[in-house]
Write a structure and sequence with these properties.
- This protein is of the alpha/beta class.
- It has helices spanning 14-24, 39-47, 62-73, 78-81, 92-107, 121-129, 150-158, 182-194, 213-216, 218-225, 260-274, 281-291, 293-323, 331-335, 347-358, 378-389, and strands at residues 31-32, 85-91, 112-117, 134-139, 141-142, 147-148, 165-169, 198-203, 230-235, 247-253, 340-342, 360-361, 367-369.
- Strands 2-10-9-8-7-3-4 form a 7-stranded mixed beta sheet, with helices on both faces. Strands 1-12 form a two-stranded parallel ribbon.
- Bound molecules: 4'-deoxy-4'-aminopyridoxal-5'-phosphate (PMP).
- Residues 92-94, 97, 120, 169, 174, 202, 204, 235, 237, 243, 248 line the site of 4'-deoxy-4'-aminopyridoxal-5'-phosphate (PMP).
- This is Aspartate aminotransferase.
- Homodimer.
C-alpha cells in the first residue's frame, strides 16, 4: 500500500476554483465578480546593469522596506524618526501575515487571537498554522442592518484576555467593504489600550477605500501616534497590480528603539528557517515607483481613477437594482468601499443560480468584486441579480 493512500483531498480554495470555472465557461456574457498591473519601472530595472541576481539580505531590499514603511506610517512618523521600527520584506501580503503570526506565536508567545467576522478566509488558517491555539471570532458585521456592529465588537474586545492578538484590516475591508469610522477606530484603540490587547493590521488594499493611500492609513497612523505597539502586514498585489511578484512588507512598531535589534534578529531567524531570503524583482518595482516623485504621482493618479470608477459602478449597480424593484435595500453597495461588496444573497439558491444559469461568478457568501463590473456588463449583472432574488 502507498504511504500516500490515506491522504484526503482538501476542499478547493473558493476564489481560485471560481476563476477556473470562469476560464472554462464559454458563455459570451460571462462575468467574473470573484477576483480583482508598471511597465516603465520594469523596463528600467531590466536594463540596469547594476542590478544583479545576487541574494538580497534576509530582511530584504532596504530601499523597498523603507519606502513601503513610509507609505503606511507616513514620512513624518515619529516612530520612524526615533528608530522604533523593524521592517522585513515578505512574500506578499499572505507571507507578511504568516510571518507576523509566526512572530507573535513563536517569539511573543501569544496563543489567543480575535478575528472580527467575517474576515479574509485565509486569516483563520494562517493563524492556526502559525500555532495559535485559541482562535476566536468576534462580531463585526451585522448582515441584517448591513453595518458594523461597533457596540458588540467593543463588548467582545473588552472581555478578551490581556495580551490577546486582534486582527484588523486597515482599510477597504475584505469581504464587507465597510471600515470603522474615525470615531469607531478611536473607541477600538481605547479598548485595546485598556485591555492591553495586541493589534495586528492587515493592509492589503491601501488606497482602495478613499483613492488616497494617506487617508486609508489613518487608522494605523492613529494607533501608532497613540503609542500602541503593533505589527503591520502590507501587500502590493492589488494597489500596484503586482499579484504574481509576491511583494509585501512586515512592519513592527516598538515603543523603545532598544528592542529593535532583538526583534530584527528573531524575524531574521524566522525568514532564514523558512525561505532564507526574498525575491528581488517586485521589491525593485515598488521601490522605483515610490521613491521617484514622477512615478509616484502617476501611481497615485491611477489609484484615484480606479477608486472613482469603483464608486461609479457601485452607484450604478445600486440604482439599477432599485429601478428594477429588486426586493431588499441596496444603498449599502454605495456606502461600502474598496473592491468588495456583500450582497445579502442565499448561498445555495441565489449565488449558485447566478453562477450556473447566468455565468456570473461570485463567492457563496454573496461577496462580489465591484472591479469586475463595467459599463458593458452592469445591466446584465443587475438584471440577473434581480431575477434570482425575485
Ligand atoms: N489580506 C487580505 C485581507 C486580502 O484580501 C488579501 C488578498 N486577497 C491578502 C491579505 C493577501 O494578498 P497577497 O498575498 O496577494 O498580497
Amino acid at each position: 500500500k502507498s504511504v500516500f493512500a490515506d491522504i484526503k483531498t482538501a476542499p478547493p480554495i473558493e476564489v481560485f476554483h471560481l476563476t477556473k470555472l470562469f476560464m472554462e465557461d464559454k458563455h459570451e456574457k460571462k462575468v467574473n465578480l470573484g477576483i480583482g498591473v508598471v511597465k516603465k519601472c520594469e523596463l528600467e530595472i531590466v536594463k540596469d546593469p547594476k542590478l544583479t541576481h545576487e541574494y538580497l539580505p534576509i530582511l530584504g531590499n532596504a530601499e523597498f522596506t523603507k519606502a513601503a514603511t513610509e507609505l503606511i506610517l507616513g514620512k513624518d512618523c515619529k516612530a520612524i524618526e526615533e528608530n522604533r521600527i523593524v521592517a522585513a520584506q515578505a512574500i506578499s501580503g499572505t507571507g507578511a501575515v504568516r510571518l507576523a503570526a509566526e512572530f507573535m506565536s513563536q517569539i511573543m508567545k501569544r496563543r489567543t487571537c480575535y478575528m472580527p467576522q467575517p474576515t479574509w478566509d485565509n486569516h483563520f488558517s494562517i493563524f492556526k498554522a502559525a500555532g495559535f491555539k485559541h482562535l476566536k471570532h468576534c462580531p463585526y458585521w451585522n448582515a441584517k442592518k448591513q453595518k458594523i456592529d461597533i457596540s458588540k465588537l467593543l463588548a467582545a474586545l473588552s472581555e478578551a484576555p490581556e495580551g490577546a492578538v486582534v486582527v484588523f484590516q486597515a482599510a477597504a475591508h475584505n469581504p464587507t467593504g465597510m471600515d470603522p469610522t474615525k470615531k469607531q477606530w478611536k473607541q477600538i484603540a481605547e479598548v485595546i489600550k485598556q485591555r492591553k490587547l495586541f493589534p495586528f493590521f492587515d493592509v492589503a488594499y491601501q488606497g482602495f477605500a478613499s483613492g488616497d493611500p494617506d487617508r486609508d492609513a489613518w487608522a494605523v497612523r492613529y494607533f501608532v501616534k497613540e503609542g500602541i505597539e503593533t505589527l503591520i502586514a502590507q501587500s502590493f498585489s492589488k494597489s500596484m497590480g503586482l499579484y504574481n511578484e509576491r511583494i509585501g512588507n512586515l512592519v513592527i512598531v516598538l515603543k523603545d528603539p532598544k528592542h529593535a535589534k532583538a526583534v530584527a534578529s528573531q524575524i531574521t531567524n524566522l525568514i532564514r528557517n523558512s525561505y532564507s531570503n526574498p525575491p528581488a524583482f517586485g521589491s525593485r518595482i515598488v521601490a522605483k515607483l515610490l521613491t521617484n516623485e514622477e512615478n509616484k504621482h502617476i501611481w497615485l493618479q491611477h489609484l484615484s481613477e480606479m477608486s472613482d470608477r469603483v464608486k461609479t459602478m457601485r452607484r450604478e449597480l445600486a440604482e439599477r437594482l432599485t429601478e428594477l424593484e429588486t426586493p431588499g435595500t441596496w444603498d449599502h453597495i454605495v456606502k461600502q468601499r474598496g473592491m468588495f461588496s456583500m450582497l445579502a444573497l442565499q448561498p445555495a439558491e441565489q449565488c449558485e443560480k447566478l453562477i450556473r444559469d447566468k455565468h456570473i461568478y461570485l463567492l457563496r457568501s454573496g461577496r462580489i468584486n465591484i472591479c469586475g463590473l463595467n459599463t458593458k456588463n452592469l445591466e446584465y449583472v443587475a438584471e440577473s441579480i434581480s431575477e434570482v432574488i425575485k
